[in-house]
Amino acid sequence: MHQETARETHGADAAEVAKFDAIAHRFWDPAGEFGTLHTINPARLGFIADRASLHGVRAADVGCGGGLLAEGLARAGAHVTAIDLAPTMIDVARLHATGEALAIDYRVQTVEALASESPAAFPIVTCMEMLEHIPDPGATIQTLARLLSPGGSLFVSTLNRNFRSFMLAIVGAEYLTRLVPRGTHEYERLIKPSELASWARSAGLELIELRGIEYDPIGRSARLTADIAVNYLAHLRKPYERA
């Protein structure tokens, strides 16, 4: 139901990056194309803050878009490195952070490059509304795991793949209510929690918790729920190395 920029890494999709880059200047308009992100961001940030210490901790926000979550992490005291493949999005993020007096290290960079440069360097890694836009999300989970320090937490949000999510997130949100632009999501790329859990195990991560995000388009509000049928958040953890 929501969208960040399409940050393709494994098999970069230049058309997707360009599509979101073209509307980057409207990222911080809560009534615009990214309005749903503004609404759900407090729930996303709360999910993270309730499960991990943020103050003074290094955090990597992968696929940061215009910086909505990155700014929330920074305000909570994290030292944030935020990456995206859309240059205009990064320009917008830097400008907005400057206006808010927030020191965030924004980069136009792939997650692979960051993992090679800073392996096991981040106790917190976030990747929101990105996995369903890339051709090989399992490989990206492997790379995200490389960023995590032992004991670190990876927080992911994405969309489930089933008839209900198709009707609500694609038919409803894109074609009926126009909450997000048409073509934002492809049903085949949506991700079942069982698939995410399998990729996590292959990457050496433990699935700690799944929570749904319930979005109310009329009241413009969002809350966490036990229902993971449509939008959901996942908390994954990298075990400490055995002696």
How would you describe this structure to a colleague?
This protein is α/β, with parallel strands linked by helices and 243 residues long. It has a single domain (14-237), classed as Vaccinia Virus protein VP39 (Rossmann fold), CATH 3.40.50. The chain is built from eight helices and eight strands, in the order H-H-E-H-E-H-E-H-E-H-E-H-H-E-E-E. The chain has helices at 14-21, 35-49, 68-75, 87-99, 111-117, 137-147, 163-176, 193-202; strands spanning 58-62, 79-84, 105-108, 122-128, 148-159, 206-216, 221-225, 231-237. An eight-stranded mixed β-sheet has the order 3-2-1-4-5-8-6-7. A hairpin with a 4-residue loop joins strand 6 (206-216) and strand 7 (221-225). It is globular, with a radius of gyration of 16 Å. The relative contact order is 0.17.
For the secondary structure, the number of strands is 8
User: Largest beta sheet: what is the strand line-up?
Assistant: 3-2-1-4-5-8-6-7
Outline the biggest β-sheet: 8 strands, mixed
From the 3D coordinates, which CATH architecture would you assign? 3-Layer(aba) Sandwich
Q: Which class best fits the helix and strand makeup? A: alpha/beta
Mean pLDDT over all positions: 89
CATH superfamily: Vaccinia Virus protein VP39
**Shape field:** globular
Query: What's the number of structural domains?
Result: 1
Instruction: Provide the CATH top-level class.
Output: Alpha Beta
- Helix coverage percent of residues? 25-40%
The ordered string of helix (H) and strand (E) elements is HHEHEHEHEHEHHEEE
Give the terminus-to-terminus CA distance. 44 Å
The tally of helices reads 8
Radius of gyration: 16 Å
CATH topology description: Rossmann fold
Tell me what portion of residues adopts beta-strand conformation: 15-25%
Contiguous uncertain segments of 5+ residues: 1-11
